[in-house]
Amino acid sequence: MPISPRLARxxxxxxxxxxxxxxxxxxxxxxxxxxxxTSAGIGNGGNLGxxxxxxNHCQELAQAAGAGAKTWHAYLSTQAADGKPAINARxxxxxxxxxxxxxxxxxxxxxDLHGANALTKQSALSEKGDVINGRGDTPNRHDALxxxxxxxxAFAAGEDKTCKxxxxxxxxxxxxxxxxxxxxxxxxxxxxxxxxxxxxxxxxGCSQADLKSTGGDGxxxxxxxx
Length: 226
Description:
CATH topology: Mannose-Binding Protein A, Chain A
Distance between the termini: 59 Å
Helix content: 10-25%
CATH architecture: Roll
CATH class: Alpha Beta
């Protein structure tokens, strides 16, 4: 017996609804989320209001996604300056394991995170469960602010690699990682999630326009520290 056009439309709509529901993270998954990439940056280039401002941004995004009961920290290092010691990004994020908004574990612990982790374009999701635009997408937003060496430690004092410890959009530069693990070449550095290259641009490297010019948007990683 032939299917009526109306029934066919209803069946198609139901199938699409099922696919959309299966693709979207559940409320329980988002509440259990312990890692995400910020869906949006603060909007002032490398000036994040210091570590406190970056942590607060993570907390607000997590709260909006239903995971605000945890304490969230940005994966950012700072360099020794003005008598204050350096801070390592790896020491700010707790012990793990960490899972994304869809329940996928991206790293078991700090050693795994800085070793054979499961971070890819498909797993380094925003707090909303969305994939971040990467190389080949328009616009490319795959640069993540970290200011860190590959092992998650801070750089020595001297050449600024943290936009004045995340307080300036006019001075210095920032070390960036590639959220999608893709770069111009097939080297480990180009594919590094946390330490691929310094920011650069007409203004020096820390303005919002500078970050966008090389494939970024002032995004960064957030981890539940507890």
